[in-house]
Amino acid sequence: MNWGVLLFPGSNCAEDCFHVIDKVLGKPVTYLWHKDTDLGDVDAIIIPGGFSYGDHLRPGAIAHLSPAMSAVKEFAEKGGLVIGICNGFQILTEARMLPGSLLQNRGLKFLCQDQTLKVDNIETPFTSEYKTDDVLVFPIAHNEGNYYAKPETIAEMEQNGQVLFRYCNPEGEISDVTNPNGSINNIAGIINRTGNVVGMMPHPERSSDNVLGLSDGKGVFISMLKYLEANKQN
Amino acid sequence: MLKAIVTVMLKKGIFDPQGRAVQNGLESVGFENIKGVRVGKQLEIDLAMDDLESANDLVHKMCDKMLANPVVESYSFVIKEV
Q1: Which of A65, A103, A182 sits opposite B72 (nearest CB)?
Q2: pTM: predicted TM-score of the whole model, two decimal places
Q3: Which strands make up the sheet holding B2-10, listed edge to edge?
Q4: CB A46 within 8 A of CB A5
Q5: At A165, which CATH number?
Q6: Which of B34, B30, B6 is closest to B20 using CA atoms?
Q7: Number of domains within chain A
Q8: What does the alpha-carbon distance between residue A198 and residue A216 come to, in Å, rounded to a whole number?
Q9: ipTM of the complex
Q10: Is the pLDDT of residue B10 over 70?
Q11: Is B17's Cβ below 8 Å from some Cβ in A?
């Protein structure tokens, strides 16, 4: 079960992701470089957070055209698991591997805080460890996390269960008041139609090791691991 | 030699918090009669070519591939001889 963490100039959450796979899950993990056209023998790819290419032009606008992203697309088309976290989510929308886009936070402020999230769909390879309506705490740290897609796209996504996480308050209430950045329908994380590519603004890798005081994020990686192991045996 | 001046704006109907903040700022110092403000970006691209038609095609391709995100942004440009 080999994991890959894709590095761009400006990625700054890659080591956290690497640590979770290596030390928390105890699984083999390797860094992939944005100029690689061959991603080697990986079973899952993590696109970490950060400020790839300095966020110039738009977050992810330059990164999504890098050689490695063509390989990531091919990997995903064959059913490989891909998760983009924060800047990774922005890169995946720019690459059109996920619908919509991430706009500037409506409050114009960079948000850096612990954030409560509600799990919406547990029937995916990324969320099977959770229970529906679980309220989790993940850190968020972003300036462009305000999820936007056309109303008809949102309606389709809602109907297909493509929303995985929504921003809520500690009681699990989802409303405009519990929406930190203006995302439509409080969307914090989504999955593609084929169910193997996820993007999320909150950071599960920063809440996966008990020593950090938060461990709710571990479920994302354990879900992925269990899915990979189950599918390897078949 | 040609210069392309590209303007990228958030599409109509998409809330632009930066534009709203600028409007609030203008109003707070006493400017009146403002219906709305939207903030976009302008890029100036110096082109090492002279043919206007192929420059036009090239800049369209640049906008579609990288300079604008069609999900949320629209673009326009003019090309000038310099």
Answers
A1: A103
A2: 0.95
A3: B41-47, B2-10, B73-81
A4: yes
A5: 3.40.50.880
A6: B34
A7: 1
A8: 17
A9: 0.88
A10: yes
A11: yes
